[in-house]
Amino acid sequence: MPWLQLRLAITPEQAPTYEDALLEVGAVSVTFMDAEDQPIFEPDLGTTPLWSHTHLLALFEADTDADALVAHLQLLTDGDLPEHQIEHIEDQDWERSWMDGFAPMRFGQRLWIVPSWHEAPEPDAVNLLLDPGLAFGTGTHPTTSLCLQWLDAQPLEGCSVLDFGCGSGILAIAALLLGAPRAVGTDIDPQALEASRDNAQRNGIADERFPVYLPADLPQEPADVVVANILAGPLVSLAPQITSLVKSGGRLALSGILAEQADEVRAAYAADFALDPTAVQDGWVRISGVRR
After folding, report:
1. Same-domain pairing of 146 and 210
2. Do the annotations mark residue 187 as ligand-binding?
3. Which residues fall in a coiled-coil region (predicted)?
4. What is the pLDDT of residues 198-216, one digit of tens each?
């Protein structure tokens, strides 16, 4: 059957109010999306974290009166609706449509990220099996892409690797498949650690090759290669800790950084690292270098 879809542009603070109101007026589903239509995969336990620019998508039965719907929502929320759009959409196989949105992706010369429902385009390449799931990091975001490209270009044989803010485990698992004998992951979110373990098992990686820890439990052992795809603010504030986790002569890659934040992050690491030129993709950057 076809549907009536209402899309609301909201702030995180407005989310609970409008979610409750939409359900009260008969929405059959309510979905949070970021401004680039990426669904939220990684809620902290008991919370729903939101981007600063969030869309709320609600589906109603096709014969719903759009004008009456808007009027009712305004009454429930005591004011005009935020910027919104109403459209009729045709029925489709939503699971199939969602799956079709994730195709195999190539990063660098050797590495592919392959959803489980696809055949590997190059069976003899380095193929990392990964589905969208509990945590961020499916390769689609520029920050993840920048880190995967960097890892693909590194000689990792014999190297220890630390994935600081591991999320789905995609970067550590990629490093292991690309030749690293062992990687360690850490994240503040227990769900991310569970997702990392699950994805490692899916790729045939034994637990002892990829142990994961909450930050308080992380062994303070410097690694040959450290990747940290988090956010600019934590990268700056945690610079002394992250630096201490890189061996002398070791390599570091930082991402999760907007282009306008690059200078501040570079300044936080310039004294301890010989930094490479900043890599840029779609307004996001990667900063890498070698520990002095």
Report:
1. yes
2. yes
3. none
4. 999 999 999 999 999 999 9
